[in-house]
């Protein structure tokens, strides 16, 4: 069985962009507005010496409406299926209360989590990382899905952990 990795995080942090970059596809729709991905989308990632299944999810919010409930349900299913969670946060927006809630939920689930800070182009990694240590998830991966920053390092981390 191939390892399964799930992309989890608030809407609009760049999960689908990361999915497309890692799977080298355009299967996941990327949107400038939150909440386009509702279901789980599966892709294959093939790298030299390892491969895995990647799941994109709609994202987790603190809102309570039908759409958020649906996305939450899909994210939960993805988390249950996954061997490793890539928890994506937005380096430009900074640490948001929902990020802390999701981090708490992931710690409760007890699954291995890799914290990934996206949208970090043009900023120093120490400065971006600082506030996210408060999530208690250890050393973050600092990436830009659109520019490709940190993707090799992220893949190396994934390889070590699956
Ligand atoms: P999702 O809701 O988490 O799946 O987020 P999307 O992948 O749909 O991306 C939301 C928006 O963020 C889109 O406008 C993307 O182009 C943009 N985005 C994604 N990754 C990056 C990044 O690394 N840097 C910047 N500046 N924007 C990004
Ligand atoms: Mg999406």
Automatic annotation (TrEMBL):
Residues covered by the EngA-type G domain: 3-162
Job description of the protein: GTPase that plays an essential role in the late steps of ribosome biogenesis.
Q: Know the name of this protein?
A: GTPase Der
Family, per the entry?
Answer: Belongs to the TRAFAC class TrmE-Era-EngA-EngB-Septin-like GTPase superfamily. EngA (Der) GTPase family.
Name of the gene:
engA
* Assembly and binders: Associates with the 50S ribosomal subunit.
Transmembrane segments in this chain: where?
none
What domain of life does the UniProt record list for this protein's source? Answer: Bacteria
Detail which positions bind GTP 1: 9-16, 56-60, 118-121
């Amino acid at each position: 069985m191939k390892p399964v990795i799930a992309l989890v995080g608030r809407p609009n942090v760049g999960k689908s962009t990361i999915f497309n970059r890692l799977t080298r596809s355009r299967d996941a729709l990327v949107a400038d507005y939150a909440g386009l991905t509702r279901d789980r989308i599966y892709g294959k990632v093939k790298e030299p010496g390892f491969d895995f299944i990647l799941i994109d999810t709609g994202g987790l919010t603190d809102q309570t409406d039908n759409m958020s409930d649906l996305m939450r349900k899909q994210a939960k299913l993805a988390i249950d299926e996954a061997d490793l969670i890539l928890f994506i946060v937005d380096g430009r927006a900074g640490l948001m209360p929902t990020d802390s809630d999701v981090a708490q939920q992931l710690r409760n689930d007890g699954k291995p989590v890799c914290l990934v800070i996206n949208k970090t182009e043009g900023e120093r990694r120490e400065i971006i990382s600082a506030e996210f240590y408060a999530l208690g998830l250890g050393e973050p991966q600092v990436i830009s899905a659109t520019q490709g920053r940190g993707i090799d390092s992220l893949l190396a981390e994934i390889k070590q952990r699956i």
